[in-house]
Prior knowledge:
The chain is of the alpha/beta class.
Amino acid sequence: MSTPAIALRNVVRTYPGEPPIAALDRVDLRIDQGEILAIVGPSGSGKSTLLNVMGTLDRPSSGDVLIDGINTRDLSERKLCALRARKLGFVFQSFHLLESARVIDNVANGLIYQGIDRRTRNTRALRALELVGLADRAATKPPKLSGGQRQRVAIARAIVSEPSLILADEPTGNLDSKTSADVLELLHQLNRNQGATIAVITHDLEVASQMQRRVSVRDGRIEPTTSETAA
């Protein structure tokens, strides 16, 4: 069996309180290379905590998080940052672009932490922009882009390092219905044509219905029934 893009084993995440609050409770989850799936749940279900733990932005209280076969449990913060830069890509609802930087620089900056020289960073950034259909806007700054174009830049930034897993947090939340459909189609194209592994965190069941697999989170646990749908 091939190594999964990410695997969570008996993951628990608690926060201080009387009694302690269990945001994640004995979560097991495996995402294989090349999958595209949705992680859904109501507000307070634990899906945001799950995103943070999957993205190594937060450490579990107990259990194991393996990214591309690497157990993150005992990694130092420096090694964890390096792993995150190489193996994970993030797409956020609010884009998180540097307004004063050119599009190509927004995409290329994530490669700085890998010690890649500027010329190679720009070459790879331009290639990523070509994949999302924005190579012609490489010298543009974000304020001159539409919401959909900004999200495409964010996706290019997420894929530029060719990560094991892309975590897209409500990627259509700030977009109108047509632009949302375009962004979802782009994610599907990256999955089909580039083999990108993508987990979309969403509360929107219509978005979730377009994914190959749906994982439901409630009260900090993965619900036992996981629905499969054709993308």
